[in-house]
């Protein structure tokens, strides 16, 4: 999977800005050319991509219905083009989903991958470890949110532990056989942290999927203890609403056209953010913003 460079990031930022300008231009054109009732756009989820979409549709002659993705009773009736929630129905002309991901593979260990507070908790626990303790980071098979995240986290932990607990170990058990920016990171770890950080790829037993496997990786010790910290990152897939509404394929993710963020499963739908899938798609905040801008532009053009 391609790693985003600074140049790629700048290109995406410029692309996001350009897409936003085009979306607003298309919106203005739609306002002047369509006297009929404003089309209704249902937006399910409130992630970064959804907020980018709403911003780019500001001023367009459309009605936005913002709907939380957390409602377990939420459903999409494609035949009648309506959202069903708690006995209420909302008609739509287009539906945009930005629902995030669902986590699976619960083995009864603390999961620290939902938000920024998760990393703070792992750091807090690592600082309380006894001298020479072990941090075990379990990496699931790709794709998952923030592909570089586990390795960035390991590096930050090593940067702190190398001063306060220099005999500590950070062991990364990886269900993949490579990772973004691998050569540079491995070299950096060797130069700055010595043998503190160890990466174990899948071919060397890095794919651990059970509490027993975690215990074995800790040398037979129980999966919870004072001398070590387990950062178990679970398997991930698109949120439930995408799977119950026919937007996800067999992979558990939602295939889209990367040029417009339009679903390849349902022509009236767009999927933006982490739930979306296309070849090489990075699951990052920057990509979610770009997807939102693309979807806004395509909606305006398709309804003009």
Automatic annotation (TrEMBL):
Start and end residues of each Sulfide dehydrogenase [flavocytochrome c] flavoprotein chain central domain: 128-217
UniProt name for this protein: Sulfide dehydrogenase [flavocytochrome c] flavoprotein chain central domain-containing protein
PROSITE patterns: TAT
Species of provenance: Varunaivibrio sulfuroxidans
InterPro entries noted in UniProt: FAD/NAD-bd_sf, FCSD_central, SQRD, TAT_signal
Database matches in Pfam families: FCSD_central
PANTHER family: FAD-DEPENDENT PYRIDINE NUCLEOTIDE-DISULPHIDE OXIDOREDUCTASE, PTHR43755
Domain of life of the organism encoding this protein: Bacteria
